[in-house]
Every structure is written in C-alpha cells, then in structure tokens.
Amino acid sequence: MRLTTEEFLTNTEICPMIAAVNKWEAVEKCGDVDCKMVNVVFGDICTISDIVKKLKDMGKQVFVHVDLITGFASKEICVDFIKKYTESDGIISTKPYLIKRANELDLFTIQRFFMLDFITYANVVKHVHVTNPNVVELMPAGLSKVIRYLCAEIDRPVVAGGLVLDKDDVIGALSAGAIAVSTTNQALWSIG
C-alpha cells in the first residue's frame, strides 16, 4: 500500500528529522533514533535491496535517492527496479521524468531541487505543477527566506536538506515553513 502524503505529514509532526544515510554505519545507527523516515543516498544495484530491507526491518519508512545509486542509469527503468525489487516506500530524484514514472508506479515521490539562482526558483514552481511530486525537497536547508517564499507558492509539503550544520539550521528551516529537515548529520537526528 502506498504511503500517503497525510501519513508523511503525520510522521514529520512526530519527528521533523529525516535521517539521510550515506554508509552502512549510518544505517545501523537508524535503529537508535526516533526519526521514522530515512533517505538512502548511497548504495548500488547489488546492495540497495539489502539496505532498504534492513531499514524496513527497523520499522522505518524508506526513500531511495535513485540519482545516487551506483549502477542505475538516469532512465525510468531504475524506478521500475526500485518498485519491483525493494520494499522502498518511494524515491527521491532531481529528474522530473523519474518522478513522473514513480507516480505512475504508485510510489511516494520527493522531488529535490538545488537552489542556485532565480531561474532555478522559477523552475521549481513549473516542475512541481508538471511532475506532481508528493513532497518537494529544497537544498541547501539554510535558505530560510527562499523556503518561506516557495512554501507560499507551491501546494506541496517542503523538506529542507543539505548543508545542515547545526540545530540553528534545523530551526531556521522549520520556522520558514519546511515540514522536516533531511540530514546525514547524525548528531541532529534526535532533535525532534
């Protein structure tokens, strides 16, 4: 059964931190923290199923960043692989066509954007309307003013991620309207 946006929002109310795991040691640490959701930002075609299973066995909701999995091409078939061969709840991608394919396969979708300039800002609004992701992730998390403006302009929950250095970055992003913060910084995973 597909994770709903409402369930995602409920989980972010319980704990606004999303653990982003970038190595096996971080996967192991997830069993010791309260955050319910985990973004997988490492692995390869041979290990991704095992990584997801380990996290699912811990009771976590898991989202695979398909752009970062070694051995995956930037083609829709990688999303089909995630659906068929893993227990992942959904995907993360910067690529609109992968988000569209995941929606077709009934996977939860998080579309990630790197905020570089005003052109990028304008493209967020355009792409969200075209690809219809469940959630939008904006990077870096320290751009609270941009987060505030985009939260008012797009009709999707916003997660902030990237360059999360300390608790102030978390508080700034949440205060600006982000519903959660994704980080590989394990020291921040328990500050819900």
Automatic annotation (TrEMBL):
Domain of life: Bacteria
InterPro entries to which the protein is assigned, alphabetical: Aldolase_TIM (IPR013785), GlpP (IPR006699)
SUPFAM superfamilies from the UniProt entry: GlpP-like
Ranges in coiled-coil conformation: none
Pfam families in alphabetical order: G3P_antiterm
Descriptive protein name: Glycerol-3-phosphate responsive antiterminator
